[in-house]
Amino acid sequence: MDKNSAKPSAKLPRRIFLRNTAALAAVAGVSPTLLVGCQSVSMTNTMTNAIRSANADVMDEALEMMAKIGPLTNHGPMAAEALVALGKREAVINFVQAYKKRFSRSYPLPREAVTKQNWREALGDEARSADWAAFFNKELNEESWEKVLGQWSENLAPGLSAAAAHGLIRTAHAARSLSVRDTALRRRELAEGLGYWAAYYQPLPETPGGKAEQLKPADAISKIPLLPSERRGRGSIMAGLQSLTSYTPFAPVANFVGSAGKPSVFLSELTETFATVYVRGASPRTFITLLHAVTGLTAIRSVLPYVSATTSQKLLHYGWQTGAGLYSIAEATTANPLSVGKEIRPADLIARAVEINEEHAIKMTEACLREHALNPKPIYLQAAQDLLGRISPV
Fold first, then answer.
1. For the whole model, what pTM was predicted?
2. Are 301 and 188 members of one domain?
3. Helix-strand-coil split of the chain, %, nearest 5
4. N or C end of the chain: smaller count of CB under 10 Å?
């Protein structure tokens, strides 16, 4: 916002106002429609009030309802927060009630306390997820959540691919919710997200000391080696990513691109690239794997305001590597054509995501619309539409 727009009597031209509103709404994580309708210069206050009104207490109610679900497979809090961000708070409880019937894995028992002295030994130990959550709950009781998030994003960045990036994604949704309202339940959710990230911490191989080639992400995609089917671990996306640790051709990939410059701009380049990868390569076999590159990279945007410049670069570096890893294990092709000239209305995408009432549909739609608001390329809308056509209503 420029100096003139800070004057109480100033008015913005509608075209510029709508553009700024969309960007501000995307950064804040609310539907732009919540903010349109007020062209006063106190846009910042209007935005804050709109966000608070949209968030209200429904997020805390949702978190309380899902408190006993185990961390692995628990997409519920992320999707609930995404619904709030889409301006559909009235759909949150219905989603949670349906979700709990499908995913009710109980929370694991603690094993051994994680401390500031032994935490490195516990990294990547899936059996210690309860220990990690307890550690971060303690940290968040002693320090501001912003400080804890900043410090541990730095520590955990090399393992960003943890649980197909779900540790980062859950952390990001929790941080965005906390940025609106600081409550005990939302701090607990941040502890769960960070604990999930730490317990499933999974570094991918990279060439030590390698220098970035400074390629654009869109140009670097064609250089990523595809993991042969026979080398991929059976089962989950996590098993597929684990297979990359012994796949020597993948190691240089982390250094194909350079993340210098404005983090927000580079992040838009990444999300646009992987939204394109999704649209071009999505198939019944690959679409779930590829969508995580979009939602995972978009999640970085919610963390960037709380980290140092050095950590920003690390998150973007490992974000690219994680997206590349998901692309490699999917063995994606570019068989699908890009649609041209077909209008896709964001409101229709939101309505369809709410109707489907499924976690991936909700999260992908919100991520694509958020990125589209900042970088208005049709590929984001195409990616969301494609996914919504692949998932049946719950």
1. 0.86
2. no
3. 70, 0, 30
4. N
